[in-house]
Specification:
The protein has one domain. 23% of the residues lie in helices and 31% in strands. The chain is built from two helices and four strands; from the N terminus they run βαββαβ. Strands 3-2-1-4 form a four-stranded mixed β-sheet, covered by helices on one side.
């Protein structure tokens, strides 16, 4: 019997989608956000931001298009 398990690359790794208040972002991003008061950030499991988009649905579609499994963070 083998004592260890070997796993290959994780299929569809999880990414986290969270709401971000525009006022908390750098001025350059706030300028680009225009009239929006919130954006949606996509983060990997280590917390690295992968994307910042204006629409929650777009954040989920973008993640799936890149073979990630998105979940919402409250």
């Amino acid at each position: 019997m083998q004592d260890t398990f070997e796993f290959g690359p994780e299929e569809n790794p999880i990414v986290y989608v969270k709401t971000v208040a525009v006022e908390t972002l750098p001025q350059e991003v706030r300028d680009q956000a225009g009239d929006l008061d919130k954006l949606f950030a996509v983060h990997d499991a280590e917390g690295q931001q992968l994307a910042l988009v204006a629409d929650r649905g777009m954040a989920f579609r973008l993640a799936r298009q890149h073979d990630y499994a998105p979940v919402a963070v409250h």
